[in-house]
Amino acid sequence: MTNHFPDYLEISRHELATGTSVKLSVVKDMPNIAQHMAKSMLQVIDSAKEKGKPATLIVPVGPVDQYPILADMLNQQQYSIKDVMLINMDEYLTDDDQWVDLTHPLSFRGYMNRKFYDLLNPDLAPLPENRICPDPDDVGAIPYLIDQRGGIDACFGGIGINGHIAFNEPPEANLTISPEEFAQLPTRNLDLTRETRTINSVTVGGEISIIPWRAVTIGMKEILSAAEQHFYCNRIWQSSVVRRVLHGPVTSACPASLLRTHPAASLTVTEYVADPPDIRLR
C-alpha cells in the first residue's frame, strides 16, 4: 500500500522519543501538564537557590495554566522569588513595532500580571526589574542581561503548529537556512507566519483579523544557551508536531527539532498528544 504521509506520523506512543536524547514524559491531560510545569519551574528555582544564586528562567505565555498554580504554591510555602528573573519569550507588537498595550486582551505581559504576578503575595513576587520582556527598541539588551545573570538556568515553553519555539518562525519555503545558522538567530522583531496567526486565532474564537502581524521574540541563540530545556504539548494537533520534532529531520523548517541537539532537553505531553494522529477524512 502506498504511504501517503511521512513515516514519523505512524510512530506509536511507546516509540515516541526512542533514539533521541530528549527525555519524554506522558501525563493524562491539560491540568496535569499545568501541575507538572508549575512543579518543574519551582524545582529549577529551588535548585538554583541551593547553588547559592537566584534562578533565571525563560518562560512562555502558552502553555499558560501553570502560572496560577505556581503562584498558589509559592504563597502557601511563603517562598520568596523576588530575586528570580523571569524572561518572557515574546510579545505581540503593533504595526510600528511597539509592544501592544498592557491592556490589550492578547498582551502576554498583561497576562503575566493578571495570572501570576498579581496573584503573588507582594513580599514574595519578583522585583519589577526581574520581570523581563524583550524590548523591540533594544533587542540587544536580552543577551547582555543573560550574560550579567551568569546564563539561563532553564527555558520553558510550548511548540507551535509549524514547529516554532517562542516566535522563532521557520523560514518561508523559498528561503534556505541551515540548522546551524538558525540556531544562532538572536532576539529580534519579526513577521508572524500565516500558520501561527491562524492557529493562535483559535484561542480567540477563530477571529484571525485581531491577531497582530508583528512580534518580538527571544532568539534561538538565547533559548539554546539555557542549561535545561523543558517543553510541553497539550493540544490535540500537537500529536503530529511532536513526531515531526522528535523523528523528522533536524531542520530550520521545524525549529523545535533543534531541541534534539541540546544535552538536557525534556518534552512533556498529554496522553492524546502521545497517541498517533488519526489522519483521515471523517
Automatic annotation (TrEMBL):
Keyword check for Ribonucleoprotein: no
EC assignment: 3.5.99.6
Cellular component aspect of the GO annotation: cytoplasm
PANTHER family: GLUCOSAMINE-6-PHOSPHATE ISOMERASE
InterPro entries assigned: Glucosamine6P_isomerase, NagB/RpiA_transferase-like
A biological-process GO annotation: N-acetylneuraminate catabolic process
Domain of life: Bacteria
Keyword Hydrolase: yes
Keywords on record: Hydrolase
Gene3D superfamilies in alphabetical order: 3.40.50.1360
Protein name as annotated: Glucosamine-6-phosphate deaminase
Gene Ontology terms for molecular function: glucosamine-6-phosphate deaminase activity; identical protein binding
